[in-house]
Each structure stands twice: as structure tokens, then as C-alpha cells.
Amino acid sequence: xKIYDSFRSALQSLVSNKLRSALTMLGVIIGVSSVIAMxxxxxxxxxxxxxxxxxxxxxIITVTPANLSDQGLKGAGAQSQNLTEADMRALQDQLGDxxxxxxxxxxxxxxxxxxxxxxWNTQVTGVTEEYPLxxxxxxxxxxxxxxxxxxxxxxxxVIGSTTATNLFGDADAVxxxxxxxxxxxxxxxxxxxxxxFKVVGVLDTKGSTFGFxxxxxxxxxxxTAQKVLTGRRxxxxxxxxxxxxxxxxxxTTNDVTGILLARHKITDPASADxxxxxxxxxxxxxxxxxxTFTLLLGAIGGISLLVGGIGIMNIMLVTVNERTREIxxxxxxxxxxxxxxxxxxxxxxxxxxxxxxxxILLGWSITQAVGRIPQAAQLNLLITPGTVIIAVGVSxxxxxxxxxxxxxxxxxxxxxxxxxxx
Amino acid sequence: MTIAGRLxxxxxxxxxxxxxxxxxxxxxxxxxxxxxxxxxxVYPGEFVAIMGPSGSGKSTLMNILGALDAPDAGxxxxxxxxxxxxxxxxxxxxxxxxxxxxxxxxxxxxxxNAIENVELPLIYGGxxxxxxxxxxxxxxxxxxxxxxxxxxxxxSGGQQQRVAIARALLNDPxxxxxxxxxxxxxxxxxxEILSIFQRLNEQGxxxxxxxxxxxxxxxxxxxxxxxxxxxxxxxxxxxxRRAEEEIAAGIGAGEGGEE
Lengths: 422, 259
Description:
The complex is a heterodimer of chains A (422) and B (259).
Chain A: H1 3-16, H2 18-54, E1 60-65, H3 85-95, E2 99-115, E3 118-127, H4 131-134, E4 139-142, H5 147-151, E5 156-159, H6 161-168, E6 177-184, E7 191-203, E8 208-209, E9 212-213, E10 217-221, H7 222-230, E11 238-243, H8 249-263, E12 274-278, H9 279-322, H10 324-332, H11 337-371, H12 385-412, H13 415-420
Parallel strand pairs in A: 3-10, 5-7
Antiparallel strand pairs in A: 1-11, 1-12, 2-3, 2-6, 2-11, 4-7, 5-10, 6-7, 8-9
Helix pairs in contact in A: 1-11, 2-9, 2-11, 2-12, 3-8, 9-11, 9-12, 11-12
Chain B: E1 15-26, E2 30-42, E3 47-51, H1 58-65, E4 73-78, E5 81-82, H2 88-98, E6 99-102, H3 114-123, H4 131-141, H5 157-169, E7 175-179, H6 187-202, E8 206-210, H7 214-217, E9 222-227, E10 230-236, H8 243-248
Parallel strand pairs in B: 3-8, 3-9, 6-7, 7-8
Antiparallel strand pairs in B: 1-2, 1-4, 4-5, 9-10
Helix pairs in contact in B: 3-4, 3-5, 4-5, 5-6
């Protein structure tokens, strides 16, 4: 029997039982569409998390001070205070071109800022000149401060786009002066400290990461933060190194660790007074979390697909029973076992295959609908070709798996008994 | 051909049975010996009626002749091919190429129209290109050239049986095997069906027909009577009745046998 004829007779029988075919297919349609939609949501979430991490800068290795031991308890003590700008400069000198850039940061807390009659409260951080390179961030207006600004503790600032808007509105912020104010004491004893900074640049808009706007901040030279704002001289909160590419991450991580161990005169890496965090590790950890999440969603869809498959099997068994006489007739005129088996297999595969295609369309519509929900607006719902191929493949496979038993039963029918069947 | 020596030199039988037995096991220890050693030769161009009361084994013999069932023992040679020990798929090929079935209940597929029903044997053997032409040709042969797209439910019993005959003719089989072909038909339609068989027989087709009606059997050239699983009588019919003449005379073929 030619495949063409098998298809024709399978389709004929599906069309002649429209309602039943449609209802049977519904199981597969719902299964496939839920797999598609759920995996799309899962993929979207994981892509969002990934891009959030990468928006902090890509290929980043972060060095932070380790927590010291306290009375023999590791990590129980205060954070060590021995990571310095000099450490960063040493990395810069020794690693040279084998890294892309590096910078050191010290948080200076939140400050009240005034300018042009407006006031605002925002985060101030001391950073070094390669900050934009490390963080993949461009300066929109003006320029970022230079190494000499860092060296001379210049009172200059680069501000985020939100901060600029809040302080200066639509006016040009570059060249303006902002005042950072701190109030000591209470009531009548209150005294204010006011420090002037000249705005040299405004950062481009970057958006928010995990719900925190990254465009509302003020960056000042590290040394200025240390000496003028915090008084914590010669201490940094973190050194950030940007590797040349993702492949170089491990090697660069080892280099950074080696150089810092040597500088801090520590022989045993286990007792290092700093921690080196590789962004790839963070990404891997997060993607394993989102991967589990996606798998869970997919599994829920998979269960409905399984239920759909059982529905197919059920209906195919009924169909075989109903058409026992037809099977007998076909066998009497020369159909072999495999002809009968193939005919019924194609019927179930046609049901699930068509169901799979319709399921993809429905799943796509669902993701479109979900995309319109405001809470999910940021979620980039991804239907990847892989998902589609897997969904169709699985539904066809379900047609084969769940259609096989009924088809074998049909093929094994004895022609005489089948012909006598009423 | 091992059997050639035992046969008349003039013609080889299209159907050659020797010592065919078949026993059915019903439940644990009840045995029904349906056939106890059947010997039968049918030569090309014969028109044979197989008769016998219920339980005589004629249905079992029919199934074995039709390669729908395998005998327990004995030799069955159909058109030079030993059918006895073939497997399921080989039997299917024999049914497809060598045998044209006509059943009492027509056994057409209700979803398919006349032409698609007739094409069925060619779907399972033979090429696709000539299929439609051959099916139309077969339908014209049984006088249904104007009904080719009708579904079985849109045809009368006699017309449905004619579609079944067209289907049986399609692969140009060695023999046409008809099981009570007029059993569900009125006298007039029965006569029409018998006249088709007689015409096909005159064109050289071998026809074997199981019937329990003497009036129907009287239209054949040879009557084989079964009793208790063996061939009891095997007689030539001196003057077969002519169905066409009966139709012309306005008489049904099965008068007395119907109603």
C-alpha cells in the first residue's frame, strides 16, 4: 500500500468523524499549547534574568574583601579592610592587555543633593576612570572623569540620567555644580556639611536591574569619595575586572587571585582575605535555577500532553473496534498486516500531528496574550525553533506510541472473525 | 510441478484440493471437525455451486478456498501455487491477486463511493496510474457505469452486490469466490446477479459459489454437495438455467426460495 493511499484513507476517516477527531485532537492541542506557552514564559524569565546580570557589565570578575575569622570561626569576623586602590592599580599594571579594563569602587552612601533649586536624594559611589569600560556603560553628555581627576581628588561627578532629570529637568547638566549635603545632630544643634561637585558627564539610560533603577546615581572619583565623603582612606569595597571574553574568564580569575595573594603575602588560598567572584559562575547558578523553573513548567505541559496521548489511544481503540468489519474487508481484498497497522498509525499520527500544529498556534496566541498583561510586559516571551520542533516531534511521537497498540490490535485481527463481526 | 503427472494433460485445475482437514477447538476439550478430508478439482472456466446443510463444512471450505484460513492438513494448489503453508502476508497477496470475493452482505466500505470501493484491491497491489480507469471499466462491466460516485447507502442491494462483483474482478483473479451472493436479494436482483456471473463465466472466468438454494445452484454448471465435512456428491448440471432469459420472461431467479 502506498503512503499516499494510507494518508488519503486516514484523512477520510478523520474527516468522516469530525467531532470525534476534533475532541480527540483537543487533548493534544491543549498539551502542546501549554508546553509552548509555559516554556516560552520560562525561557523569557531566564533570558530576563540573564540580561539583568549582563547589564551589570559582561565578563566581569569581582573581588570583594572576605569576612575575617573571629576567635577561630571563619567568616564570623568583620570584613577585612585591606583591599586598596593600589591592589587595583597592580592588577592594571601586571595584567595589562590580558584584561579589558578594571576599576575599584567605594560606596559613599546616600546623600541629599541640591542643584538649581531642586533637591534629590541618591546613592553616591566612588569609582575609578575605567568604570564605563568595565560596566559597558556609555556617557551620553560630557565625559567621564580621568585618571588624573582620580589622582588629584577632583570634586567632579558623573550623574545618572534619572538624577540629571530630577535635578536639572531638561536643561543641560554638564558644567553645572551640584551640592552634596550632610546634616549632623538634631534640632538647634544641627549643622550641615556642603560639598560642591562639578558635573562633567551624564550617563546614558540603562534601565533597572531586579527592580532597582541604575540611572539614579552619582559617580565621583574614588579618592574623592575616600577623602572627602567617607573618610575611609585607602580602602575599596570592590575591585572589578573585565576579562577580554567569556573564554578568558577562568584564566583571568586565576591571575587576579594569584596577584592579590602575592600582594597580600598569603600563601594558602584558603585563608585569602578577599573573595573572587566569576560572573560566569553566577550566570550558571542562575540559569540552573531558571532552567529548573522552565523544566517544571514544561513538565506541567508534558502531563497534559500525556493525558492527550491517552485520549488518542482510547479513541483509536474504539475506532479499531468500530471498524473491525472494515479491517476484515480490507484483509479479504489483500491488505497485509502492515498495511492495516500503517493505516491506523497514520490516523493517530495525523490526529496528533495536526493537533501539534494547532497547539503551536494556540500556544503562540497564549504567549501573545500573556505579553499584553502589564506585569509580564518586561518578559520577553521566547518561542524558540527548538521548542516548536520538540513540541511537534513529541506530539507525533505520542501519536506513534499511543497509536501503536491499537494499530497492532487491528493488524492482528483474523480476517474471518473480522468479517463476521457485527 | 509435482502434481502435473496426476492431472489430465489437457488443462491444469485452477483449484486443486487433496485431503483437506480442519478442526476447530471450542473451549478446552470440545473439538469440531469441520472438514474431514476434502478432495476437489476445479478447472478453468467452470461455474461451480457448493451446497450443503448448516454444519456440513461448506463455510469452512469457503474460507480455506479464499485463503482466509489455513487448513490443518492436506494440499491446496491455487493457479499453480501451493497455498497450504503460506504465512499471513503471503496469504494476503494470494487473496489480492488470485481471488475475487463476493459476500452475502456485500461488504463494501460505507465511507467510500462505488469507484473507491472497487479500487480497493489495487490499493494493496498494483500501480496507481491505471487504477481509476480499471475501476470504471469493471463498474461498466457490471452495468453501473452511471453510478460510479454513489456511496453504498445510495445504492440498492442488487447494485451494491454489483459493485462488490466489480471489485472482485479488478485484479483479474484466477477465480471468483461468491458466498451466498444472492442471500440478501429479492428474486429480480438475484437473477441480475446470477446473469452477471453467467456472463463472466462465458467470458472464461472461473466462478465458485456457495449457496443453500437449489434454484440458485441450478444456474451453475456443476454442483458439489458437502455433508459432514466431506464432498458427498459432485454432479454436472445438464441444462443450467439462464438468468437472462428468466429476467426477460419476468420471472425471478429464486422463486419459492425467497420471501
